[in-house]
Amino acid sequence: MEEQPRFKFAVDRGGTFTDIYVEETRDGVTKGEVHKLLSVDPANYKDAPTEGIRRILEEKTGIPHQRGEPVDTSRIDWIRMGTTVATNALLERQGEKFAFVVTKGMRDVLKIGNQSRPDIFDLRVKRADVLYSTAVEFDERVAIIRDGESAKGLRVEVLKEPDLATLEQDLIRIRDELGIRSLAVALLHSYIYREHEEAVEKLARSLGFTHVSLSSRLTPMSKLTPRGYTACVDAYLTPKITDYLTGFSQGFQNNLKDVSVEFMQSDGGLCSIDTFTGYRGLLSGPAGGVIGFSRTAYKESEDGKPPRSVIGFDMGGTSTDVSRYAGHLELVFESETSGVTIQAPQLDINTVAAGGGSRLFFRSGLFVVGPESVGAHPGPACYRKGGELAVTDANLLLGRIVPSMFPKIFGPDANEPLDVEATKVAFDKLTKEVNAFEMLQQETRKGYVARHFTPEQVAIGFVQVANETMCRPIRSLTEAKGFDVRTHVLSCFGGAGGQHACSVARSLGIDTVLVHKYCGVLSAYGIGIADTVVEVQESRLVDYDNTNALQDALGSLERLEQQATKNLESQGVSYVSTRAEKFLNLRYDGTDYGLMVQEPEDGDFKGRFIADYQREHGFTIPNRRVIIDQTRVRLIAVASTGSGSKFKQGGQHKPTGPVSKSQTYFEDVGFTDVDIYNMPLSPGMIISRPSIVIDSTAGVTIVIEPNCTATVTEDLDLEIHVENRTNASPDKESEDFVDPVKLSLLGHRFMGIAEQMGRTLQRTAISTNIKERLDFSCALFDQTGGLVANAPHVPVHLGSMQDAVRYQIRKLKDSWLEGEVIMTNHPIAGGSHLPDVTIITPVYESGKPTFFVASRGHEADIGGLTPGSMPPFSVNLDEEGMAVESFKLVENDLFREKELRSMLEEAGSRQVKDVISDIRAQVAANNKGIALMEDLMSSEGAARVQKYMKQIQNTAAVSVQDMLRRISIDRGLKPKDSLFAEDFMDNGLKIKLKLTIDRDIGTAEFDFAGTSAEVYGNLNAPRSVVTSAVIYTLRSLVDTDIPLNQGCLDPVSILLPKGSMLSPSENAGVVGGNVLVSQRVTDVVLMAFGAAAASQGCMNNFTMGDKNIGYYETIAGGSGAGPDWDGASGVHTHMTNTRITDPEILEQRYPVLLRKFLLRKGSGGVGLHPGGEGVEREIEVTSPLTVSILSERRVHRPWGLNGGGAGACGENYIVRKDGREIFFGGKNTAVLQPGDAIRICTPGGGAFGAPP
């Protein structure tokens, strides 16, 4: 009697397609197959996974399974699924309506977030909205007991018992009036003390609330803001997930009670259907891909060598996911999705907005790919829906997609092939645009030699730029973390990855590409072979070297393993064995960057932490306590079938040859004859010439490029050897010839190098200012000191670093020797204010500097009158701290620590060790930039790199010229005409501007004649600060994404009256000029252009400390509105973008209580487009501290434009313990006693347009 077939289904429900891997076992023979169907097709079915399973069962059994009837489950062993239901609900903001319950005074903590803006050059300040419908403040308060550490961690005291009676009335109101039934709860320090959150849950349940997400239960980790976001995501998504799962179950007999059903989580582990939640499922599909490639590509070689580390390269329609595997899953515990920070374990997957649907643009001489996407509808131009050109079109034109073998699913009746003609017409049009630009450059730029492009050359150019865009996150995963990318294997999967894999590998220097036989559905396959995982953790916050604390933490790991085992058993999943991975989350005291350390064989967690820290950061911190933040256990259950086993491919495979031939365009060789193969191929088969391999079932095309050899493995995978041209000498080209494609590629490389410098600095620094507030910048300069690429860090650094480099070139001349590193922070030497220390390193070739790299960081304390080196009343540099015009920090290969320490101590620095450590980190960041630039020069040649540095600057100049001409026309100006603006500082100082635009030649003159004289105080701005304000404004007004560099300033001149507050004398005080005057200059320039109303015009600089500690923060306010946008609230504006310290971290590290952090209702200007609101921040001290405030806009309100109202002024108060409020002024310092507080109310932004 024939055995009944049994089925196992692994399903990845994506945004466009649902992929299904099904394993069928019949008569002892197991076969695997793949199936695809549209994820959304309401005309034919309600749910794609259900429909896919129904179709497969009907096809394989021959038994009718009627659509709409519950599916017969008698032959199903298990269903495992990844789904985008949670992700789509978050992206589309289609989640459950809910309320956010938070400690009183923290109502707007999630609206403010970390106070930074996503794009520093976007005047509109586009930030994701909060998920909740309303916030409810809960009057309760706990506080950390200073020096109250016990073996079990920090202790807290209840300062205010919870007011449940008032909360009950508030919950009844939102239930009855708003119809809310779901809550998210995040209370201060609930990661230590859960009782108050649990009291809220008990009350809410009694009032009929159906879902309550407690932050302390979901993620018991420090940091209120991400923990609150996580609770909100759960409250927003889990009810929707529950609804979906209920509907899914109802599509099967007996609601799937007799079938094992598990869902993939973001951490790469499966969980039962009953425990699947929204916040753990956002990366459900991509996580399956990571499991898929990690299980299939990470393996020993045939000669017995250890496995090579693997890069996962998953290229889809709208984006590309990259990840790394080196024997263990790499997890992160805080990530951002759709503008929302989530505190939960997730696989470390980096996503870049470059996929098959990424749009193609030619802008100011640059080939640009994305980030905009054509989407599934209308799709690329070839989809017959009137879409724009996309990467898919480029591959089609180049013959990398074979239309005759592509599904005929297009046109009105969904039965037509890809429209090749539409793609050709669109590329012809774009090619004419490119060639017209080239001819214009030849006519207007002396010596420029135009290149004539064919459509195919344009298309291959865009493909190359797309490849480089995808290489950048791969370099970040490897090189930025100390790994050599060339030693990795590239595992390619996803619908579009095969068309690009060989080129991407060659660009990275990778010699092996592995394409799995199920590469088109590898996420579904990975879900099928994944393990069930249960994670549990506890917060500790104890000293590792405290013996009792360590023993209790180790005991906690045992208790957590027992708890995880109980949780696993309650899920009812089958497994044959389990293993527990035990972790301690460790960090150095005073830092915020921890490492999750897995239990080593010798049990020495601290030793492993120090070794990992050294590898990751390049240094350790001797004599610094190591803190145990959390204990964590990850229990892995290995399933009895599927998990870890190799799915068998049924059937015999006969030798296969090419099914047809075609022509494909390749770089350097043009159109080439290629063989076309259909998968599956025969084991042992070798393809040694350019070819295309197609898997029509999975919708995958794999391009095997020239100088690549593909071998079919025994498992029917493709292993492609890529010959890299590492030893080839760089191609020569004339000095006058500029290739726009090469320009675009090197532009990406230059910016990528600056970004990697920044990541190195953030990782290796130890201060809060650099590591957490991100108050630093890194940049690359040409041989003249001109800015080439500046990673988008702090705007006030943008133009001034160039002045600092050029000053040292002029000053040192030939005395600046190879290997010497210069330190400077003096205003006359291109400095901004003294805490911003710049480290500059030249790279020499043949005895001459080829280029320079530099990093600037805001040091914790470099002396001066007050802790934090931001004195409100300084009148000269001597009172502001250490001032260095030019100091050889590294000389004769020696780091001159002794001399540096002496200078810091002489200036009165209170944190000498930390400052020296951060300066060392800046040197390390520069060295990283040098190494990456040397690699680039070895492949491209120094002359070519230098030439394209200049050309990338020319490109920025052209963009600024175009913007100036456009504004001249829009404002109705004469061909050469002037605009005027002026504004006043709170003490009456005037900043006056005459802006003259010459439309014919595309230039502008910024003349600040009439500006007030140098002030006896610190509101003097060095020329470099004014330059930064101008370059920031120009870049912000260019409406396309252009590189920020010296070219932005080439079409402009800046005239500053000598002896004015914008061109002060050598020893004038400048600390306020950098942080306050810079903001006012920016507002004045924007006023002249008529671009936007005034923003808060201030950074609200707050410092506090004593002889042992120092703390500095800048505080958000309201941004100005514009012609078509409202101002943003609670955000940093213009010349700064540093982050705010999380409330719980602030209270852990300093003797303070954060009493309020709210938006100032009504502080934004009133108008057609209202201004953004400022914030109210009140900090109470619990031990004597000196506090200082350096702020502006406390007298003159941020003005509106075009009839819009002004924003509210800021206000500062001292609030005494007895409740007395004392006006503190805009600039002041005082010693507060325990129970006293400082309240800082920041300005709102101006409105644009008269009220309707």
From TrEMBL:
State a single Gene Ontology molecular function.
5-oxoprolinase (ATP-hydrolyzing) activity
> Which GO biological process entries does UniProt record here?
glutathione metabolic process
| Residues in Hydantoinase A/oxoprolinase domain copies | 227-534
UniProt record similarity statement: Belongs to the oxoprolinase family.
Hydantoinase/oxoprolinase N-terminal domain segment(s): 8-207
Report what the protein is called. 5-oxoprolinase
Tell me the PANTHER family matching this sequence. 5-OXOPROLINASE, 5-OXOPROLINASE RELATED
InterPro entries for the chain:
Hydant_A_N (IPR008040), Hydantoinase_A (IPR002821), Hydantoinase_B (IPR003692), Oxoprolinase-like (IPR045079)
Q: Which domain of life is it from?
A: Eukaryota
| Cellular component terms (Gene Ontology) | cytosol
What organism is this sequence from?
Answer: Rhodosorus marinus
Hydantoinase B/oxoprolinase domain location is 739-1251
